[in-house]
Amino acid sequence: MTLLPLDFQFSQGSLQDYVDCRRRFQLRYLDQLAWPAVEAEPLLEHEQRMRSGAEFHRLIQRYLLGVPEKRLSTMMDSLGPEGSDLKRWWGNFLQFANVTPGGNTLVEGVLSAQFGSFRLLAKYDLISWDMDEPDRRVTIYDWKTSRQRPNRDWLAERLQTKVYPYLLVQAGEQVTGLGKLSPEQIEMVYWFAEHPQEPQRFSYSDEQYQQDHDFLAGLVDEVGSLKEGDFHLTADESRCKFCTYRSLCDRGTAAGSIDQVESDLEVETEQDFDLDFDQIAEIEF
Amino acid sequence: MELTPPQLDLIEASNDQKIFLEGPAGAGKTTAGVERMLYLMAQGARADTILVFLPQRNLAQPYYQALRNPGLVAGGTVDVLTLGGLAQKMVQLFWPLVSEQAGFAHPDQAPTFLNLETAQYFMARVVEPMIEGGAFDTVTIDRNRLYSQVVDNLNKAAVVGFPHTELEQRLRGAWIGEISQAHLYADAQQAALRFREFCLEQNLLDFSLRVEVFLKHIWSVPVCRDYLSKTYNHLIYDNVEEDTPVSHDLMAEWLPQLESATLIYDWDGGYRIFLGADPASGYRLKDHCQEEVTFNHSFVTTPEIQEFTAGLEISFNLAEDRLDSPFVSPSQPIVEDPASKPAVGDVRSVLEFETHRFHPQMLDWVVERASYLVEDEGIPPEEIVILAPYMSDSLRYSLSERFDRSGIATQSHRPSRALKDEPAAQCLLTLAAVAHPEWGITPVSYELAYALVQAVDGLDLVRGQLLAEIVYRSKDGRPTLTSFDRINPDMQERITYQLGERYENLRLWLDSYSLNPVDELDHFLSRLFGEVLSQPGYGFHHSRDAGQVTANLIDSARRFRWILAESLTDGSGKDYVQLVQQGVVAAQYIRRWNEPSEGAVFLAPAYTFLMGNRPVEVQFWLDVGGQGWAERLYQPLTQPYVLSRHWPPGTPWTDSEEFASSQEALYRLSTGLIRRCRYKIYLGLSDLGEGGYEMKGPFLRAIQRVLQNYPADAPGTQVETH
User: Fold this and answer.
1) What is the interface pTM, i.e. ipTM, of the complex?
2) Optimal mutation site among B531, B561, B589, interface A, most CBs of chain A within 10 A
3) Assigned domain for A282 exists
4) Chain B partners of A45 at a C-beta cutoff of 8 Å?
5) A281 vs B57, B88, B588: nearest CB
6) pLDDT category, B633, cuts 50, 70, 90?
7) How far is B450 from B423, CA to CA, in rounded Å?
8) Domain of residue A42, residue span
9) Which of B57, B227, B530 has its CB closest to that of A38?
């Protein structure tokens, strides 16, 4: 019997964790273990980059939802020195935005579809398509704010590059209104805020789609079949430097340097704020 | 579960229907709401055009559960939001368009969102100078409760929809007691005004300001409204009766633009009145729907249990015109599902009780009966809840310790448990003080001993105290730890060399850190956790709870630091630690609503259980004779009824209104509980309560009146023992 709950949802993040280290997958997604050790050093710089990255995503979202560019630029101008990255990225983005196709968009949208006995889910920064274009191309954009621009081979192997276009084929029909999407219609673009002129583009194809399907299905089957003792630690101990569970696995004490990180570490999503019983000090239960 | 024809009719209504569904708890309304959502998706509605709107996040569970079904239609995802969540989302997105007109002093700069703890912190900064100047001098409540009542007043103004400048006028106009109380209202008004001014000056948005900015500004900006109306075409709005008037106003305006809507309304609800819920306001949304549907067959309760509700209604002697009261949601007789329920019996077949002299005896009886149910009747532990009006730490401990001894797991939910009361947090904060001698915070010896016991795996309290007495010193208000190597060998042996070595590593780490300390307390905590306490040989290494508590503490400290930095307010790690110790921050940090764990009896305050909206087989009601079931919390600076939309400003709130509202609240609470019980209710009774007071409160008297209607030898009679 599988250890996965029946309503388990796979994402590129969880699959990437599984590929990187089965144990990390188990601790993070099955046990949901909070383990707040340092992820990368220097901690303050790492934190600042994570926050700036999240703010940059929100900025673009505002822009794409119709908040005037001029108003957003005024806000950028008012930032102090701590906002220098964000200002630079914004300037770079505006140049890029002038060359990206217009039309219909899904901004910060989530798609999901059945995958085997489970569900596959992904959050997209931007999906863009134009109903009037003859070939009805659909482009997935992903904004990256990492200092380094990862090489193409490394990106090609990332689960994100496989999951995002694959899931769009599966679930894009309802959202785009373009009918059943074929892989050939889809392109995935990684745009790097620090390297605005050098986006990495991945065209999708039937062949790639089939390969991704087989790979992902194999992976999900494998995860589903594992027993309690099968979640082994990764053999590549360099990964443990950027894993907060390192102390639990006896794999070191200190975190690795942010300079060695190939791309963005995952940004946490903020929780909804809500007023409920938990937040009323007066209810002294 | 098989759906009934009325449920199917509602679920499969056409995609352009606006339906108002009402009925008692347990009639399958939420099930129909969930299935309606799935049906809309199956019929081709884009999932991301469906909004599930709820008064409180934890009510979303059945919807989330359905949305995680692997076989769900492929596509986008349904948004599940509360007013607070929607306001936060919209303010975040459209801040640049409204920041100036909403009156913020720095409209070009980003907003800072306050949670309850940071709102309370800033409220303290505003109120403390007022207190020093003599304000609030006649009130004798804890400072944190004082701050939170002012915050609560602002929230009430926002969710009821009146200007926060009218708080004093409304509260004072209803007050008929001593004049000193009226001064307090003036002070509370001043505090609210100053806090709001401070927030506008610093770009801070507490809950009240978020809601006001959303409703007064964002909702009227075309690009924002377009965004909402283009995003959502279908609405499922569940537990309308538990939501606030401004939510109802919003929906009343929004409904005509939506393609379809299903509004779900519980009779006899309104448990969140003290959070601004307004059942009568919600009921007017019925007029905005074309279809009106009533489900009044209970799938949960037996006729006997229903009879208990009917008996209580008579017993409470509720006024005949109570349904005209704006604080009461409508109610009609409930029809039980005749197919699944026995037709004979009386109330006593579903009520079991035993009176004891002392409180601990009552707890013993509760645990003994619950154990019997689990072991002999095969009722799963998660189908048993133990409820009290308030779940104090001591009550929680007394119960869980007794259940432990019986070999039955428990899960408790006490929302306002302070983070500082968690042993892992105490350990971290004590070690933080030791690592930062410049703070001048000197833990006492037993605090250090306790911290070491938590930190060092295998160290018991006796050896921990021994170690602390030897190695811990405070000189000129600066705490220091000395080396294990300097202890005499006999003592080293007694403590053991292995534990000594662990202590020594911890001490060296703290020493090394203090040579180069950082300003960010959360960074210190994260390093201490990752590099020492969670390593092999230390107390947090295999402790899931310690990991969770540390994560919460770090999260709280980090948010605090960020907010202070964004508002250009001075504050350090030392300030944070002191605020935690005073209970100002991290006081209600456990945010997650614990889902009931399989195999564990659930211990919770009665209202918390109700808002979980989950029927169970068996309920135990503790301290039924206590006043806590009927009394409103003492809140000298606020009043939920007077600040509601229905109370005419200037009308006195008299004892008779107080009595009627408390009777009504008690009736609503008890019927809410009864309707979420399938099999049996056990009443825990003791002559003397936990604090030694006599227990003959109105709830007990009302139940006794119900039972007096049955002959003594009727079936189901239980033996009373003393």
Assistant:
1) 0.91
2) B531
3) no
4) none
5) B588
6) confident
7) 8
8) 9-227+239-266
9) B530
CB contact under 8 A, B551 and A37: no
pLDDT at residue number B414: 59
Instruction: Report how many domains make up chain A.
Output: 1
What is d(CA A57, CA A75) in angstroms, rounded to the nearest whole number? 15
Residue B592 DSSP SS3: coil
Cα angle A244, A248, A251; round to 5: 75
Whether A252 is covered by a domain: the verdict is: yes
Q: Give Cα A47 to chain centroid, integer Å.
A: 17
Which of A67, A170, A271 is closest, CB to CB, to B94? A67
Any idea which residue has 């009931």 for tokens? B596
Query: What would the two tokens of residue B46 be?
Result: 């884009």
| CATH (domain of A36) | 3.90.320
Question: Mean pLDDT for chain B?
Answer: 89
- DSSP assignment of B489-529, as one string? HHHHHHH-HHHHHHHHHHHHHHHHHHHS--S-HHHHHHHII
pLDDT tens-digit map of B329-383: 665 555 544 444 444 457 888 999 998 999 999 999 999 999 999 999 999 999 9
Q: Which residue of B has its CA nearest to A58?
A: B93
Q: Are the C-beta atoms of residues B128 and B182 closer than 8 Å to each other?
A: no
Domain annotation covers residue A2: no
Cβ within 8 Å of A, B 511-530:
518, 520, 523, 525-527, 529-530
What are the b/e assignments for B111-130, b being 16+ CB within 10 Å?
bbbbbbbbbbbbbbebbeee
Residues 26-65 of B with CB under 8 A from A: 44, 46-48, 56-58, 65
Q: Examine residue A63 and state whether it is found in any structural domain, yes or no.
A: yes
Size of interface A-B (CB pairs under 8 A): 228
Strands B291-294 and B234-237: unpaired
Q: Quote the pLDDT of residue B330.
A: 60
Pick left, alpha or beta for residue B459 (phi over 0 → left; psi -120 to 50 → alpha; otherwise beta): beta
What single DSSP character describes residue B330? -
- C-alpha to C-alpha distance for B145 and A172, rounded to whole angstroms: 51
Q: Chain A within 8 Å of B611 (Cβ-Cβ)?
A: yes
pLDDT at B405: 95
Please list every residue in chain A whose beta carbon sits closer than 8 Å to the beta carbon of residue B604: 285
Which of A6, A74, A106 faces B108 most closely, judged by CB atoms? A74
